[in-house]
């Protein structure tokens, strides 16, 4: 009786390992619907953002350049969505091994580019709020372009694991093919997804959280607590990215955790079932972040629509660069006002002293 139980239970605990992310029609159908909606909103939305900055913006601040690069990355990802919609609808990868590696490499590059551009936005706001006197050092066009070049270079390098580990393999029993991460050893799974979580989420988000803690502390210490439009916009971008990418990284850690257990154990089978049935949905949810930013820009700049028309978004982006410059101008203006006040006080003292001397002379003459 025990032997029969083992023989019937053991194969069933190993069957989930043969499943893939496109083995479940409900998950793939939901993913295809999400991606279709994302494409319809995100593709024209990001194109409009790029056009607004390049054709309509009179001045391009540091924040505007970062938003432009973010829109380019998101817009390029939107171009790739029809390939993934086809993959989910057919539940079969028919585009070959080269396209498998390239498409997922570009997706991973978009993830890294987005989070690190958002991190740069947060760091720039940190410097402009906490150290406004040093903002002129990092706002030079050459400095900004160099920083952006380094970021894109790091993105290209960090996305290489997708080229190494992604490949097309048959699903088995003549059921077609799948483009997925396949590894000869479990440690390769741990390395790949741990790197994504650490360098694609934990480190940049740690920098972002620390930056905004310092910003909020600085704002509380200031005498005039103004509501800054660009501060709210960047914070909304940060929270939106976290909301849509966090499920993806959680599933990554679930898959890493499953590899820590021995094969064909109950715990590993349960974790395998979770990530296999959830990855298609969480991956498509991550795509939403690329179409959410244009929506955020629309609501943030809707007050400009009546006055500016199609240029409303360009005026919004110009405003994001105006806040930091206005702060430095206010600081310099305050110092000028202090200097003027000091000059007025000195003049008053001089006038008082001259008046006193004149009165003393007059009294001396009267005494004579």
Automatic annotation (TrEMBL):
GO terms for cellular component: cell surface; plasma membrane. GO terms for biological process: inflammatory response; phospholipase C-activating G protein-coupled receptor signaling pathway; positive regulation of cytosolic calcium ion concentration; positive regulation of macrophage migration. It comes from the Eukaryota. Keywords: Cell membrane, G-protein coupled receptor, Glycoprotein, Membrane, Phosphoprotein, Receptor, Transducer, Transmembrane, Transmembrane helix. It is found in: Cell membrane. Residues 335-352 have a biased composition (Basic and acidic residues). It is a multi-pass membrane protein. Belongs to the chemokine-like receptor (CMKLR) family. This is Leukotriene B4 receptor 2a. It comes from Fundulus heteroclitus. The lineage of its organism: Eukaryota, Metazoa, Chordata, Craniata, Vertebrata.
């Amino acid at each position: 009786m025990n032997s029969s139980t083992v023989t019937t239970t053991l194969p069933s605990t190993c069957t989930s390992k043969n499943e893939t992310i496109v083995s479940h029609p409900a998950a793939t159908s939901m993913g295809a619907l999400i991606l279709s909606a994302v494409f319809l909103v995100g593709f024209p939305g990001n194109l409009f953002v790029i056009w607004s900055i390049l054709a309509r913006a009179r001045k391009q601040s540091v924040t505007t350049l970062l938003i432009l690069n973010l829109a380019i990355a998101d817009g390029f990802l939107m171009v790739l969505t029809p390939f993934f919609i086809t993959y989910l609808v057919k539940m079969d990868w028919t585009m070959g091994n080269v396209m498998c590696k390239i498409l997922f490499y570009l997706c991973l590059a978009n993830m890294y580019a987005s989070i690190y551009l958002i991190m740069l936005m947060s760091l720039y706001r940190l410097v402009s709020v906490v150290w406004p006197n040093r903002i002129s050092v990092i706002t030079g066009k050459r400095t900004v372009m160099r920083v952006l070049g380094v970021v894109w270079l790091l993105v290209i390098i960090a996305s290489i694991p997708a080229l190494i580990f992604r490949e097309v393999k048959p699903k088995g029993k003549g059921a077609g093919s799948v483009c997925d991460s396949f590894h000869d050893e479990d440690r390769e799974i741990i390395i790949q997804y741990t790197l994504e979580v650490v360098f694609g989420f934990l480190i940049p988000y740690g920098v972002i959280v620390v930056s905004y803690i310092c910003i909020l502390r600085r704002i509380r210490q200031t005498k005039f607590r103004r509501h800054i439009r660009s501060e709210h916009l960047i914070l909304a971008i940060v929270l939106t990215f976290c909301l849509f990418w966090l499920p993806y990284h959680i599933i990554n850690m679930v898959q890493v955790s499953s590899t820590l257990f021995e094969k064909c154990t109950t715990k590993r089978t349960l974790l395998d079932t979770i990530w296999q049935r959830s990855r298609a949905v969480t991956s498509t949810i991550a795509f939403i972040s690329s179409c959410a930013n244009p929506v955020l820009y629309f609501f943030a700049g809707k007050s400009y629509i009546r006055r500016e028309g199609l240029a409303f978004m360009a005026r919004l982006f110009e405003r994001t660069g105006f806040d930091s410059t206005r702060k430095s101008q206010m600081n310099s203006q305050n110092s000028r006002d202090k200097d003027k006040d000091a000059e007025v006080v000195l003049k008053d003292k001089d006038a008082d002293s001259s008046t006193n001397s004149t009165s003393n002379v007059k009294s001396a003459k009267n005494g004579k």
